[in-house]
Amino acid sequence: MRLAPLLLMFASFGCDKGHVPAPAPAPTTAPPPVAVETCTLAPIALKLPMPKRAVAIGDLHGDLDAARAAFRAAGAIDERDTWIGGDLTIIQTGDVLDRGDDESKIEELLERLDLEAHAQGGAVISLLGNHEMMNAAHDFRYVTPGGAKDFGGDRAHALAPGGAWAKRLARRNVVAIVGDTVLSHAGVTAEWASHLDELNEHSRCWLDGQEGTTPTQALTAEDSPVWTRVWGGEHVDCAALADVLKRLGAKRMVVAHTPQHAGINSQCDGALWRIDTGLSKHYGGPIEVLELDDPPKILKGTRL
């Protein structure tokens, strides 16, 4: 699979934008994605009804213990990692991969818990982050020595588009709208608000190996819902946020991607919530998750 040119493309990204708040990038001029006529994957609905109870969890970055602690804080699992959440829905907003050694273990936990949750009327919804996309494009700069041995010892093949693990990632959307809440890894800007179904389809079909080596625009566009920093920094344009929410018929947006070292916080009178607390070992941030109540509630956990 000819992915070497993609690594050159990533040089323009610097280093995952440093994973620190940065000035908002200028919108890209990349055209919006178009429908993938030849893709055989069944679509995953963008909009889902609001469940009785829902909790959003941010970046996990290869730390199984932190993931387990977050699920416990949500009331989803017991000390044996068995689902006890009943009809609870968990939405994990991407970046399971990189910076830690437990990536495939977390992925397997998420898949198992989704099955257990469905048996009780709940669900575990996993979304795609920039690090899932980067690994599919063979950008392994943030892989730990332990992670390099993960995924059956052949990470490059397993996570490349069409690989066994990439096909599992292809079961996930980039953006979900749950009730009146928009959730994605980095957030939706006005340029993308009208193209979310196409974006989800493109990303999934690329991971599934049905689009050759041409990467999805979720990965290559600097303002995409896995890359943008406009919602994660100190200064947020609340009028721009209100415009996006109006376009999507939503009340609030939940984003991760940019670590909030003091913990989960909100902007724009509760219309924006930032949930990446840097809870993995790599950052050592607090174990916090967000219950999507009205208003949302911050649930605090204990590091295992």
Key structural traits:
14% strand; 304 residues; alpha/beta; six-stranded mixed beta sheet; disordered N terminus; single chain; Purple Acid Phosphatase, chain A, domain 2; five-stranded mixed beta sheet; globular
Q: What can you see in these coordinates?
A:
This protein is an alpha/beta fold and 304 residues long. It has one domain (41-300): Purple Acid Phosphatase, chain A, domain 2. Helices cover 26% and strands 14% of the residues. It contains 9 helices and 11 strands. The chain has helices spanning 4-10, 64-73, 103-119, 130-136, 155-159, 164-169, 196-207, 217-220, 238-248, and strands spanning 47-48, 53-57, 88-92, 123-126, 175-178, 181-184, 252-255, 265-267, 272-274, 288-291, 297-300. Strands 1-5-6-7-9-8 form a 6-stranded mixed sheet. A 5-stranded mixed sheet has the order 4-3-2-10-11. The longest helix is centred in the middle third of the chain and has 17 residues, at 103-119. The chain is globular and about 45 Å long.
Termini separation: 40 Å
The DSSP helix count reads: 9
Q: In the CATH hierarchy, what is the superfamily?
A: Metallo-dependent phosphatases
Order of helices and strands: HEEHEHEHHHEEHHHEEEEE
Broad CATH class: Alpha Beta
**How would you sum up the major sheet?**
6 strands, mixed
CATH level 3 topology: Purple Acid Phosphatase, chain A, domain 2
Biggest sheet, strands in spatial order?
Answer: 1-5-6-7-9-8
Give the oligomeric state. Answer: single chain
Approximately what portion of the residues adopt beta-strand conformation? 5-15%
Mean pLDDT rating: 91
The secondary-structure class comes to: alpha/beta
Return Rg in Å. 18 Å
CATH-level-2 architecture? 4-Layer Sandwich
Estimated helix fraction: 25-40%
Quick one: overall form? globular
Instruction: Flag low-confidence runs.
Output: 1-15, 18-29
